[in-house]
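so my prof wants the structure for this chain in the tokens format not the other one, which i didnt know existed until like an hour ago. anyway here's the sequence
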Amino acid sequence: MKANGNPMVVERYSGLDRMIHIIHAAAMLTLIITGLKIYFGWDFMSFHTARALHMFAVPFLLVVNWFLIPVSIVLAAKGGILPRFMHFWDHYIFGPKDAARMAGIIGNFFGKGKYPAFSIYDEASGHYKTKLHPLMKILIVIEGLAIVVIAITGIVLYSLNWSFLGLPIASWILSIGGLFAPAFGLSSLEFLRIIHLLMTYWFVFELVVHVGILEFDPHVWKYYKAIFWSGKEDLTDTHYAEVVKTKNH
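here's what i got, hopefully its the right format
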């Protein structure tokens, strides 16, 4: 989508995309900090304050990931089911082209070849073919699974008797945990608490990779500006970006 009448300035992120990213980042940081405080007992805030903030952030993270992100993906593409599915596949699923880009990135690290573009804009259709760094396509899938796991284990840590519509959800989760916990010499609750902590460590690792490694580069700071403020990308800056023109959208 063209922006400001300049054919080389396009909309990279919609207002909904930017809102989702900001809420997701704020909720995730809140959950990581308060969760580690609760587990390790750090004294920079009280336990009750940390728990309250933790529980306040949970619904924001879940609503963003399980409702708003799917909605934004559906709204980002036009047409029927197939165009929307192809949009999802191209933008979020690691495929052969991403593998080729990844190989180029590794080669560049060892001084062989140029760092390949991972932001590909199709001038003919007026839409991006892909936006994400290929490694992020892997991390996003793992993050989705980690959110499911940390939400399930978090139910038990919140309340051992939690139920929904009369269904003893917490008891079921404890029973499932009990199938694996004895192999590690743990109770079901201890096992689920450790899994919850491991998922927290995963999010810390992903944050370091996402912000501290993939984007610790002045040429990538334009994407920070786009996702947090303007939503636009100037394609005259060809660092990590490429413009293509295909016959079919």
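also thought this was worth mentioning. The beta strands are 2-3, 6-11, 119-122, 127-130, 232-234, 241-244.
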